[in-house]
Amino acid sequence: MTRQEAFQVLGVKPGSNKYEIEHRYTLLTKSFRGKSDPDTLERIEQVTIAYDVLTGRYVPPPPVDPRQEKVIFGKKRKEWANIWNYGKAPLAVGLVIVGLVSWLIYSIATNTQPDFLVSAFGDFQDTTNFMTDEPTGLEKVIREQNPEILDPIITLNLLSERAGVDPQLIMGSQMKQMLMMSGAEKVDILILDGLQYQRLVPEGILVPLDDIYQELLTTAPEAVAEFIRPLEGTLSPEALPEGETPAKHIYGFDLSEKQVLNSLDISGSSQIWTICYHSERKEMAEEVTLNLLKTITEWYDAERGLITEPIPTTQP
Prior knowledge:
Number of domains: 3
CATH topology of the largest domain: D-Maltodextrin-Binding Protein, domain 2
Radius of gyration: 39 Å
C-alpha cells in the first residue's frame, strides 16, 4: 500500500499531519466496535495497514515462496513447518518419557530377584573392597553352609546420628526401611543396631526366635555362652493380632559383646541378628540363622577386633 492509497483509505487529505491521522484512525476504529462480519474485518485490516504506513510502522510481509505453498498430505509445506516449530519441544519431552517408561519396564522384566536377602539397618559399614564387587564374608558363609542359596544379597543401609554422615544417604536408607516395614521389599534376615532393634520390636516386624534359641542351647551351648545374648521384647497393642495378650518373646540375638559379624565384613559396635516377619522364606531364614550361629567358633576371628566400645542394648 502506497502513502497515497493510505490517505484514501483513512479518508484524510494528502499531507495531513500526525494529529489528524491519529484522530481519524481513532474515529474509524470506534465505528468498527461490535462488528465481526467479513467486510468489516477486511476494512479494519485495511485501515490498520494504512495507519501503519502513514506513521512509519508498516513492515511489508515477506515475499511468498512458491515452494512453501506446495500441498503435502493435505497441508501446505509452511503449515507443516509451523507444526514442527511449535511441536518439536513437546515431541522431545514425549520421546524422553517413552524412553524412561520403556527402560523401567525392561528393568522390571529382566531384574532377577535374589533368592535370599539380608539387610542391615543402623550404624554399619562394609569392610570389603566395594570397588571390586568382592562378596562379604557373610555372603560366602551363607553360600557354603546353605548350598540351596545361589544368590544371597547383603545390603547395608546406614542409619546413624554421627556427625558428617551424608543426609541424602540417611534419607535413602530410611526409604529402604519403609519398604521393608511395609513388606514391599521381602527381606529375610535383618541385622540391626540397638536403636533400630528397639524401634522395630514393638512394630511386629520381627519373628519370635524362642524355638531357635532353645535349639542353639542344645546344639551349641558353648557358642551361646560365649557369643550370643537373647533379647526379649513385647509387641505394642496395635501390632498384636486381635484377641491376643502381650507376651514376651525373644526377637533378636545380640552379638555385640565381641562384635562377631566384624569377622564377616559387617562392622558395627552394636550387632543384633533377627528374622524379618515379611520374609517369604522363613524356614530358610531359620536354617541360615541356626547354621551361622551354631558355627560361630569356626568362623569367628578375634583378630578382627572391636571397632569401639560396644553400645549397650537395653531390653525394649
